[in-house]
Amino acid sequence: MDKTYNVKRDDISTINDKGELIQILKRKEKTFELAQKIANVGYWEYDQLLDRVSWSKQMFVIYGINNDFTIKREEFFNFMHPDDRNRVFETFSLSERTKTAYEIEYRIVRPNGEVRFVVESTEFFSNESNDWLGAIGTIHDLTENKNLRLRLIEEEHYYKSLFENNNDAAYSFDLQGNFLSCNAALEEMFGYSKEELLKVNFKHLVEPRSLHKTQDFFMATITTRLPQNYDTTGIHKNGEIIETGYSSLYLLKRLALDTI
What is the Cα–Cα distance from 235 to 238, expressed in whole angstroms? Predict the structure, then answer.
Protein backbone atom coordinates (compact mmCIF):
# COMPACT_ATOMS: atom_id res chain seq x y z
CA MET A 1 0.00 0.00 0.00
CA ASP A 2 1.40 3.39 -1.03
CA LYS A 3 2.17 5.87 1.71
CA THR A 4 1.14 9.50 1.59
CA TYR A 5 3.61 12.19 2.61
CA ASN A 6 3.02 15.82 3.50
CA VAL A 7 5.79 17.80 1.79
CA LYS A 8 6.39 21.19 3.37
CA ARG A 9 8.72 24.07 2.65
CA ASP A 10 11.90 23.96 4.74
CA ASP A 11 11.56 26.75 7.33
CA ILE A 12 13.53 27.23 10.57
CA SER A 13 12.22 30.72 11.39
CA THR A 14 9.65 29.29 13.81
CA ILE A 15 12.22 27.39 15.92
CA ASN A 16 12.90 29.18 19.21
CA ASP A 17 14.99 26.62 21.09
CA LYS A 18 18.69 27.44 20.56
CA GLY A 19 19.90 23.87 21.10
CA GLU A 20 17.35 22.48 18.66
CA LEU A 21 18.25 25.16 16.12
CA ILE A 22 21.96 24.31 16.33
CA GLN A 23 21.26 20.61 15.77
CA ILE A 24 19.02 21.35 12.80
CA LEU A 25 21.62 23.65 11.27
CA LYS A 26 24.33 21.01 11.67
CA ARG A 27 22.11 18.42 10.01
CA LYS A 28 21.30 20.81 7.18
CA GLU A 29 24.99 21.52 6.67
CA LYS A 30 25.68 17.79 6.26
CA THR A 31 22.73 17.49 3.86
CA PHE A 32 24.02 20.46 1.87
CA GLU A 33 27.52 18.94 1.68
CA LEU A 34 26.07 15.62 0.52
CA ALA A 35 24.00 17.37 -2.16
CA GLN A 36 27.12 19.15 -3.42
CA LYS A 37 29.06 15.89 -3.50
CA ILE A 38 26.36 14.08 -5.45
CA ALA A 39 26.01 16.89 -7.99
CA ASN A 40 29.76 17.64 -7.94
CA VAL A 41 28.99 21.30 -7.37
CA GLY A 42 30.89 23.56 -5.00
CA TYR A 43 30.26 27.14 -3.99
CA TRP A 44 32.42 30.09 -3.05
CA GLU A 45 31.67 33.43 -1.43
CA TYR A 46 33.56 36.73 -1.39
CA ASP A 47 32.83 39.13 1.47
CA GLN A 48 33.99 42.58 0.44
CA LEU A 49 33.71 44.11 3.92
CA LEU A 50 35.99 41.46 5.43
CA ASP A 51 37.91 41.01 2.16
CA ARG A 52 37.61 37.27 2.69
CA VAL A 53 36.95 34.35 0.40
CA SER A 54 35.38 31.14 1.65
CA TRP A 55 34.99 27.82 -0.14
CA SER A 56 32.65 24.92 0.44
CA LYS A 57 34.16 21.48 1.02
CA GLN A 58 33.35 20.35 -2.52
CA MET A 59 35.29 23.28 -3.99
CA PHE A 60 38.47 21.83 -2.50
CA VAL A 61 37.60 18.45 -4.01
CA ILE A 62 36.98 19.93 -7.45
CA TYR A 63 40.22 21.91 -7.41
CA GLY A 64 42.24 19.03 -5.97
CA ILE A 65 43.36 21.00 -2.92
CA ASN A 66 43.50 19.35 0.50
CA ASN A 67 43.75 22.22 2.98
CA ASP A 68 42.92 25.86 3.51
CA PHE A 69 45.36 28.21 1.84
CA THR A 70 46.15 31.90 1.56
CA ILE A 71 45.95 33.57 -1.82
CA LYS A 72 45.30 37.01 -3.30
CA ARG A 73 42.07 37.44 -5.20
CA GLU A 74 43.87 38.04 -8.49
CA GLU A 75 45.80 34.80 -8.04
CA PHE A 76 42.61 32.76 -8.23
CA PHE A 77 42.87 33.09 -12.00
CA ASN A 78 46.09 31.08 -11.85
CA PHE A 79 43.93 28.00 -11.22
CA MET A 80 42.49 28.43 -14.70
CA HIS A 81 43.84 26.93 -17.88
CA PRO A 82 46.17 29.46 -19.59
CA ASP A 83 44.05 29.40 -22.76
CA ASP A 84 40.90 30.31 -20.79
CA ARG A 85 42.35 32.70 -18.22
CA ASN A 86 41.97 36.01 -20.08
CA ARG A 87 38.44 35.20 -21.21
CA VAL A 88 37.30 34.41 -17.67
CA PHE A 89 39.09 37.46 -16.22
CA GLU A 90 37.40 39.78 -18.75
CA THR A 91 33.99 38.24 -18.03
CA PHE A 92 34.46 38.56 -14.27
CA SER A 93 35.78 42.15 -14.53
CA LEU A 94 32.85 43.28 -16.66
CA SER A 95 30.39 41.60 -14.33
CA GLU A 96 32.07 43.16 -11.30
CA ARG A 97 31.83 46.66 -12.79
CA THR A 98 28.20 46.28 -13.81
CA LYS A 99 27.19 44.09 -10.85
CA THR A 100 25.46 41.63 -13.19
CA ALA A 101 25.36 37.86 -12.91
CA TYR A 102 27.24 35.68 -15.37
CA GLU A 103 27.78 32.05 -16.29
CA ILE A 104 30.85 30.78 -18.08
CA GLU A 105 32.45 27.45 -18.91
CA TYR A 106 36.21 27.01 -18.72
CA ARG A 107 39.01 24.68 -17.69
CA ILE A 108 40.94 24.57 -14.44
CA VAL A 109 44.28 22.93 -13.77
CA ARG A 110 44.76 21.02 -10.53
CA PRO A 111 48.11 21.13 -8.66
CA ASN A 112 48.92 17.67 -10.09
CA GLY A 113 48.44 18.99 -13.65
CA GLU A 114 45.05 17.36 -14.24
CA VAL A 115 42.71 19.48 -16.38
CA ARG A 116 39.05 19.69 -15.34
CA PHE A 117 36.09 21.23 -17.17
CA VAL A 118 33.83 23.44 -15.04
CA VAL A 119 30.96 25.90 -15.45
CA GLU A 120 30.80 28.83 -13.06
CA SER A 121 27.71 30.84 -12.15
CA THR A 122 28.25 34.03 -10.17
CA GLU A 123 26.00 36.73 -8.69
CA PHE A 124 26.82 39.93 -6.84
CA PHE A 125 24.80 41.04 -3.83
CA SER A 126 24.29 44.37 -2.11
CA ASN A 127 22.43 45.93 0.83
CA GLU A 128 19.25 48.01 0.81
CA SER A 129 21.32 51.10 -0.07
CA ASN A 130 22.64 49.25 -3.12
CA ASP A 131 26.15 49.15 -1.66
CA TRP A 132 28.07 46.18 -3.02
CA LEU A 133 28.73 43.63 -0.28
CA GLY A 134 30.29 40.77 -2.19
CA ALA A 135 29.72 37.92 -4.59
CA ILE A 136 28.72 34.29 -4.47
CA GLY A 137 29.25 31.65 -7.08
CA THR A 138 28.98 27.96 -7.85
CA ILE A 139 31.43 25.73 -9.68
CA HIS A 140 30.00 22.66 -11.39
CA ASP A 141 32.55 20.03 -12.43
CA LEU A 142 31.55 18.85 -15.92
CA THR A 143 34.61 16.71 -16.60
CA GLU A 144 33.00 13.27 -16.51
CA ASN A 145 30.08 14.41 -18.69
CA LYS A 146 32.48 16.15 -21.04
CA ASN A 147 34.71 13.09 -21.39
CA LEU A 148 31.67 10.86 -21.93
CA ARG A 149 30.42 13.19 -24.66
CA LEU A 150 33.83 13.14 -26.34
CA ARG A 151 33.91 9.32 -26.22
CA LEU A 152 30.43 9.15 -27.72
CA ILE A 153 31.48 11.50 -30.52
CA GLU A 154 34.56 9.38 -31.21
CA GLU A 155 32.46 6.20 -31.25
CA GLU A 156 29.92 7.85 -33.53
CA HIS A 157 32.66 8.81 -35.98
CA TYR A 158 34.08 5.28 -35.77
CA TYR A 159 30.79 3.53 -36.51
CA LYS A 160 29.90 6.10 -39.17
CA SER A 161 33.19 5.28 -40.87
CA LEU A 162 32.43 1.55 -40.69
CA PHE A 163 28.98 2.21 -42.14
CA GLU A 164 30.08 4.45 -44.99
CA ASN A 165 33.16 2.42 -45.96
CA ASN A 166 31.55 -1.01 -45.63
CA ASN A 167 32.03 -3.16 -48.73
CA ASP A 168 28.53 -4.57 -48.12
CA ALA A 169 25.50 -2.45 -48.91
CA ALA A 170 24.25 -0.82 -45.69
CA TYR A 171 21.43 1.53 -44.84
CA SER A 172 19.12 2.63 -42.05
CA PHE A 173 15.48 3.57 -42.06
CA ASP A 174 12.79 4.66 -39.62
CA LEU A 175 10.04 2.45 -38.22
CA GLN A 176 7.94 3.09 -41.30
CA GLY A 177 10.67 1.84 -43.58
CA ASN A 178 11.70 5.21 -44.99
CA PHE A 179 15.40 5.52 -45.76
CA LEU A 180 17.43 7.67 -43.38
CA SER A 181 20.92 6.87 -44.63
CA CYS A 182 22.80 4.59 -46.97
CA ASN A 183 26.34 3.91 -48.11
CA ALA A 184 27.94 3.94 -51.54
CA ALA A 185 27.71 0.15 -51.86
CA LEU A 186 23.91 0.32 -51.71
CA GLU A 187 23.83 3.07 -54.34
CA GLU A 188 25.94 0.92 -56.63
CA MET A 189 23.86 -2.22 -56.01
CA PHE A 190 20.49 -0.67 -56.86
CA GLY A 191 21.55 2.11 -59.21
CA TYR A 192 19.98 4.94 -57.22
CA SER A 193 21.78 7.96 -55.81
CA LYS A 194 21.71 8.65 -52.08
CA GLU A 195 19.47 11.65 -52.70
CA GLU A 196 16.95 9.46 -54.54
CA LEU A 197 16.98 6.73 -51.89
CA LEU A 198 16.37 9.13 -49.04
CA LYS A 199 13.08 10.12 -50.66
CA VAL A 200 11.58 6.61 -50.88
CA ASN A 201 10.46 3.67 -48.73
CA PHE A 202 12.34 0.36 -48.75
CA LYS A 203 9.33 -1.20 -50.53
CA HIS A 204 10.46 0.70 -53.61
CA LEU A 205 13.43 -1.67 -53.91
CA VAL A 206 11.61 -4.96 -53.28
CA GLU A 207 10.22 -7.16 -56.03
CA PRO A 208 6.40 -7.32 -55.54
CA ARG A 209 6.24 -11.10 -55.04
CA SER A 210 8.80 -10.83 -52.21
CA LEU A 211 7.26 -7.79 -50.56
CA HIS A 212 5.00 -9.61 -48.08
CA LYS A 213 7.85 -11.81 -46.79
CA THR A 214 10.21 -8.82 -46.56
CA GLN A 215 7.65 -6.80 -44.60
CA ASP A 216 7.19 -9.72 -42.16
CA PHE A 217 10.92 -9.81 -41.43
CA PHE A 218 10.98 -6.02 -41.13
CA MET A 219 8.18 -6.09 -38.53
CA ALA A 220 9.85 -8.99 -36.70
CA THR A 221 12.99 -6.86 -36.33
CA ILE A 222 10.94 -4.09 -34.72
CA THR A 223 8.67 -6.19 -32.48
CA THR A 224 11.27 -8.68 -31.23
CA ARG A 225 14.26 -6.31 -31.38
CA LEU A 226 16.28 -9.36 -32.39
CA PRO A 227 18.53 -9.65 -35.46
CA GLN A 228 16.81 -11.10 -38.54
CA ASN A 229 18.60 -12.87 -41.40
CA TYR A 230 16.67 -13.58 -44.59
CA ASP A 231 16.82 -13.72 -48.38
CA THR A 232 14.64 -11.62 -50.64
CA THR A 233 14.45 -10.28 -54.18
CA GLY A 234 15.14 -6.67 -55.06
CA ILE A 235 14.74 -4.53 -58.15
CA HIS A 236 17.50 -2.44 -59.71
CA LYS A 237 16.67 1.02 -61.03
CA ASN A 238 16.93 -0.37 -64.55
CA GLY A 239 14.43 -3.15 -63.73
CA GLU A 240 16.97 -5.90 -63.25
CA ILE A 241 16.12 -8.52 -60.60
CA ILE A 242 18.61 -8.78 -57.71
CA GLU A 243 18.77 -11.72 -55.30
CA THR A 244 19.97 -10.47 -51.93
CA GLY A 245 20.52 -11.65 -48.38
CA TYR A 246 19.71 -9.29 -45.48
CA SER A 247 20.81 -8.96 -41.87
CA SER A 248 18.56 -6.57 -39.93
CA LEU A 249 19.24 -5.01 -36.52
CA TYR A 250 17.07 -2.87 -34.26
CA LEU A 251 18.91 0.15 -32.93
CA LEU A 252 18.20 2.00 -29.69
CA LYS A 253 17.52 5.16 -31.64
CA ARG A 254 14.45 3.34 -32.97
CA LEU A 255 15.96 2.82 -36.38
CA ALA A 256 16.17 -0.40 -38.35
CA LEU A 257 19.65 -0.93 -39.74
CA ASP A 258 20.26 -3.42 -42.51
CA THR A 259 23.25 -4.76 -44.34
CA ILE A 260 22.98 -6.69 -47.56
Answer: 8
